[in-house]
Each structure stands twice: as structure tokens, then as C-alpha cells.
Amino acid sequence: MDADMRGGAGALPPLVAQGPELSPADISRFARHLPLPQVGVTGQRRLRNARVLVIGAGGLGSPVLQYLAAAGVGTLTVIDADTVEDSNLQRQVIHSTPAIGTPKVDSAAARLAETAPGTRVNALRERITAANAVDLFNGHDLVVDGADNFATRYVCNDAAELTGTPLVWGTLFQFSGQVSTFWPGRGPMLRDLFPDVPEADSVPSCALGGVFGALCGWVGSLMATEAIKLICGIGDPLLGRLARVDALGSRMSELRFEADPDRPPVTAIETFADVCAPDPVTEVDPAQLGSAQLNQAGPVTLVDVREDWEREVIAHPSAHAVPLGEIEARGWEALDGVLAQSTGPGTLVFMCKTGVRSATAARLLAAEATPVAHPAVASLRGGILAWAEHVHNPIQY
Known about the structure:
By secondary structure, this protein is an alpha/beta fold. It has 16 helices and 13 strands. Helices cover about 35% and strands about 15% of the residues.
């Protein structure tokens, strides 16, 4: 019996047509898939013919990419603009220590080339935005969204609606995770489940809120499973169902939801362009600290926005400690103590580990309107790690 006829009660038609006959090497490699009546040779040929786009090569993208490649997916495209940091390695298991400082997409492609040489990997070092999402979705059979921010998730949802592309979606926060599958025309979408885009800072990032590393494997494996089910047309996909994972309680629960008949259809995604590409901030190179060029505008005050435990690893001797969470909560008021010690307007240079959180702090304060004049704001390019290397004291943490 063909695998098409052996799905679960909620199974949909296979998403991908069968590819070429399996080679002897394929039969050997996928020998544990072939006896499964729901997969078999037919399903394996569908996997080999599939084109899957994976958004992000981080905590969720790591297990998704590895399991899809191991399953025999023929073409994987991974899109991510970030580089590997040592703090990623606690959960982003596709990367390794030698990859620190390299683009995540290149690190991921190199790992997949070792473990799944039959899979073609397209590495895109960029972000998915309103400008490129539709073309990327149109070029793939299926998209798996492992993004780490709300704006990108809604861009992906809207691109899926515009192109009719199935979308497997997942998210993480500390010890909990969620997974669902959105297929336009066959079930409700993200905007039916969460109609309004949350504020960008309404949930702390992984850097601020933390994430349980092993949870990424659990949630990412669920996402990869959903993708394989859709490709092969087997099982009961999470359409109209939100799977909720609780790592501390070792529990899974399910929330059912339906399409909102009053929700207007998606017709464009341009409104998300500015959200996905935040306004640039002034950056200061570590070599400029203390230079005459920077000090022409007045005294320079360094503000370290990292957490206490991070400053115990390494800290600039002249930097004031004001965690990003305080700045996000109180704005300029969080810096009252720092400003009281300043000898003039000058420039506040924010610093963190690599320059991401410091840029966020500078951006927030620059946009906050207040009745009094404040110093100029800037972010230290490359963060404390770049400064340490500049003063010939490289460090890993």
C-alpha cells in the first residue's frame, strides 16, 4: 500500500511529489525509515525531493536543521544574520567552539555537510524581511520558523498567507515552549491565534530571561517532526492546535483554536520592514575610547548594561553598571546616578558583551523624549570582547 493511504485520521495529502528512485547508498543510509509503513520508499523519495526554508540557525534551528538533513530532506535553506558566540553553545548544538566568531549559517552548513552530504544546503547570511520573504517562501515547499523575535514571526506568517506556503512555527521562553503548524486555506494562522503583534520588549530575550538549553532539542524535534509529516502526508499535523511544552513539569498540553472569520486577509507585509530592521545607532570603536576625536564633544562616560554575573567575568574599570532591564523599565531615570557624576553633557557609550544589548539601550534612550537635554548616546562596537582584544587581553565567557 502506498504511504499516501496510511496517514493518521487528520493526515493531509503529501506536500511534496516523489523524487528520483533511491540509490543503494540512500537505501543503506535510510534503512531505519524504510520499514516504517507511514514513510517507506515513497516517503523517503518525497523527503529527497523537498525544499525547506529554516528561519534561524539558533536554539530551534539547530535541531530542526540536523533532523531534517538526517531524515534526507534534499534541499535546506538556512537564513540567519548572526555570528556564533560562546554563549550560544549551551543550546545551539549545531555549532562548535571553533566556530565562534563565524557566521551561523556557515557553521551550520559545514556541520550538515559532514553529517548529511546528500543534502544541498543554501546559506543566506541575512535577515528575513518584508522585502525578501515572499520570494523566499515561493522558492520552497515548506518553511520552519525558529526566529527569536515577534516581528519576524509575523513576517513569516504573512508571507505564508500571501504565498500559500505551509509554516511550522515554534517559540521558547525559559522552561516552556510552543509549537504549531499554519497552512493557509487548511487551518487557522498565527494571526488567528495571536491577533496583535506584541511589543518588541514585552518578553525578555534569551540573553535577559534565559532559556533552558535541552528544551531547544525537545521543541525543535517537534518542529522537525511536523515538517516531515507534512512532506510525507502522514500523521495528524498541529493545524488549529498549539502544543505547549513544560520542561520543569515534564508535561505537554494542547490548546485548540480556530480561524477568526472577521479577521481581514493579509494583503501585504511592508508594515514590518521597519520593525525587522531597527534604526541604526552611533557606534564607537574600542580604539576610539579616550581619543581626542571622541572627546571633542565632551567627557565620555561608559555604561555597562550587562548583568552582575557577566561583569564578574570581565569589566571595564571605568564603566558604570546599569543593566539593560533597568533602562528598558525606567528610561533616562535609570541613569540619574551616572549623570550626577558626569562633568558635562558629553557622550554616554553603552557596552555589553558583543554590542547587541548596548545598541538596544542607546536606541531606546535616543528615542525617548524628555523635557531636559541629555548627553549623546552611542554603543561600543563589538562590546567588551572587542575592547578586551584591543587591549591585548582576549577572553571567552
